Every structure is written in C-alpha cells, then in structure tokens.
Amino acid sequence: MLLSLLAGYPNPAVAAEPPKLNGQWGGPLKVPGGKLKLIITIVPLANGTYYAALDAPQQRISRMPAEVTLKGSDITISIEQAGSRFVGKVKNDGAVFQGTWTQPGLSAPLTLSRLEAPKPPTVAAKARLTPPYREEDVTFYNKVADIRLAGTLTTPAGPGPFPAVVLLSDSGPQNRDVEQQDYRMFGSLADYLTRRGIAVLRFDDRGVGKSQGNNFAATTADLVSDAQAALILLRTRQLIDQRYIGLLGHGEGANVALLAAAEPETAAAPAFVVSLAGYGVPGREVVQHQQLEIMRLIGSNPAQVKAALAMHKEMISIIRQTPNDNQARGKVAATLRFNSTDLDPHMARARAVQLTSPWSRYFLDFNPTRSLPEVKCPVLLLAGSADLQVNASQNMGPLRKGLKNASVNSTRLAGVNHWFQPQMKDWPVVNGEQQPVFSPRTLETIREWIFDNTERPRANPTTGGAGSNSANLFKGLRKSVKSSQASR
C-alpha cells in the first residue's frame, strides 16, 4: 500500500513534447543537522501518463506517490501526501534535475542525478551455474477477466509433493519480483521459501511485464480472479501437494487473498492465507492515518496537519457523495486549487481524475472485515511496527476480530517497515553500501507457520543466503496437528 489514495496510480504529465523520462533520479537534500537522500522514480505508461514515486530510505519512506508536470525543460514534482514539491529544470538530456525542494519549514536547493539502472533479475539468474531448485516461466488464463498472466514457478528439489503458495502484490504496477532500487521483495521471498521446501508462484501484475490487462482499472475485488486463476494453475502440477496450496499477499494483495478465502466452496479456494500488512479498516481511514503520519514525519506543525487533514476529508466526502465522475472531478479540482493557489489547473484536474477512478472509489468504501467471517482456513497475520503505510495497531485488531471462524496467528514485528525490511542498521554492507533485505525474522516466521499448517515433504533441501543453515531448515519437522484445518 503506497502512502496515499493514489497508491501505484499513474501521474499525468501535462506538457507539449516533454523530455522522455524513464528511470530514477537521486540526490542529497540538506536539512538541519545533516542530509537526506531522496530518490524519485518516473516510469512512462502506455496511455501517455507517468507513474512516479518518492523514496527517502533514511526516513523509511517507500514509493510515496508523486505527480509530475513537464513544460519544455521545466519540471514540477509534487508529493501532496508530504506537503512537498520540487520545482526545477531538466538538464543534460534528462541526466539531471536542478531546482528547489520545498516542504513545511524548509526550502533548499536540490540536484537530482540519474541513477544507474539496477541489473535485471535475468542477469543475476544467469550467474547461477546450478540452480538450487526448479524454475520455469509460466502463463495462465484468467477466464473471468479474459486475460493471460505470466509469472515464474519455483519448485524445490526432490520428489515432492510440495506445499505451494501464490504471491499477491500490493497496489500499483508491480512485476513478479516486486522490485524497488536494489530490493526484490517477492524475488527474495520466493527464493527463501523454495530453498526450504515450499513451491512458489509469483507473477506480473495486470498490464506489467508479460501479463495482459489494465492494472489501473482493476479494483481489489477484480484481482481476486487473478489469484484464483493462479491457484487453478498450481492444481495442474503433479509436484504440488493439492491439499496445501495457499495465498500470500502483501498490502492490497493480502486483502485479495482474504477475499478469495471467503469463497470456500469454489474450486480455487486457498488452503491457507498469509497476510503481510493487510488492511483491517475501510480505505478512507487508512488514507487519513497515512496523511497524519507523514505530515508528522516531515515536521509539519499542528496547524499544517489540521489543514491537510481537513482538505483530505473534504475531498473524500465529495467523491463519496457525488457518483457522477465529471461532477466529482470538477468539485475536487476546485477544492485542490482553493487550498493550493499555485497548483497548476491541469495537475489539479489530473489528480481529480485519479481520485475518482474505479480503483479509488472502491478503495474508499472497501470494508476489509465484511467477508472475514466466511474465511475458514488458517490465517497468519504479520505487520511491522515501523509500517507507515498500513499501521499495525489500526489494522491488525479488526482483522483478528473478523476472522472469528478461522485459526489465526498474528505477530507484530519490531522495527520492520511496510516492505518488510528490518532497521537499516541490520542491513548487510555490500561493496561499502548497505543493501536492503527482507526481514530474516519475517521469513522464518512465514516458513515455520506454513509447515505448522501443512505436511513437510521429503525434499532434497538446498540452503543459501543470509540466515540459512541445516539446523534451521529442519527445525519443526513434523506434521502439524492443525493440518486438518489447512486441508479443504
């Protein structure tokens, strides 16, 4: 879940013949007492709009939505959620953005330079002379949406059959590895689980990579059919234990998994669900909490926080009470410009279009707990104490309460953020720089819980990576007394 209602949604760039921007730009922002590294990601989309986001690793901010306006060589990057803006020039054919960064209580010069693109996963894969597990590209058909999705299935070494899990990503356009900078969230998770005896299917979101469809037109409910199609694919594989095929979702993906589990009579129902930072309250409450946390994080004073929250509530009220999109967009754009007189009218209109999209309208009124009593399979709820996007205290309680007919385990992980990374001090140092990693404690918790709710196969184990050893691999070797709950 990104830090706004626009999680993962496109950001139109309004300009005549703007520079073609695609990649990441980063640079140090001087602040009282030191410097903060800011990273801006800009990706052009097929419909002529941009997906843009801000990362500030030192403040544990990841993929905060940004809006881009280009007019010739003039560029404006607005991060409404943080009350911040960069205004400057695009120089050297897009190699440099030079200008001024402003946020509550601070205005400072900032130069953002194009960052070297990370090596794609295929390069890293070629470096492995002997894969430690089976790995294949797969495609599967979602007949409900009439689209074909593409992904990667990794199966442990050995005869099996193996328990399996489908990975479901958070909102926004994500590829099968869920990459951001040097971090491959789902790539790392799939590698870890497969090395330890659990088959994993991860796939490109709709409209991303080799998958068909339109990511920005799909609501949370629409994406349930993608999860179900993935489960059906796994049921055709002989090496997969048909009793133990589950769903693991992150952010919005967690709620997709729970919605799928609430349909237990279908052929594609999961045997278990792992929720990583799932929502437990309506979307509008999630958004309001995010707004509050971010404004506090960047040092806004109480008056600024109050004004930002009031404007956000007003826009949400307009959208919910005005079903006609054109009317709602006009009112939202007017509200935005009234509260920010220097906001470009085209950007205000673009923002209003996004806020009234099918996804946004659904998200505002989505009540994640409504269908939870229908979930009967075992559920693992995990959340990080340092998660700014989906607050653990706000969301885990309602989820536990709603899952009254399921066997539920829940853990709040200290120091872990929304992307399930540990604190930066615990990141490994590679070539003199700290590299983000998936929280080892989270990985171990997921693995142990899945084996507690399935039957461990006789596999040829392959270990590797941080935190892996044979003792940990066989810890908890047993058939769970809960296996009957996991079996459908």
Separation of the first and last Cα atoms: 30 Å
Strand content: 25-35%
* Gross morphology: globular
* Radius of gyration of CA atoms, rounded to a whole number: 22 Å
- The average pLDDT score comes to 82
Biggest sheet statistics:
9 strands, antiparallel
| Strand order across the largest sheet | 4-3-2-1-9-8-7-6-5
Judged by helices, strands and strand pairing, the structural class is alpha+beta
Count of separate DSSP helical elements: 13
Which stretches are poorly predicted, pLDDT < 50 over at least 5 residues? 1-18, 120-129, 464-488
Helix content: 25-40%
Extended strand count: 21
Short note summarizing the structure:
The chain is α+β, with helices and mostly antiparallel strands and 488 residues long. 28% of the residues lie in helices and 27% in strands. Strands 4-3-2-1-9-8-7-6-5 form a nine-stranded antiparallel β-sheet, with no helix packed on it. Strands 10-11-15-12-16-17-18-19 form an eight-stranded mixed β-sheet, sandwiched between helices.
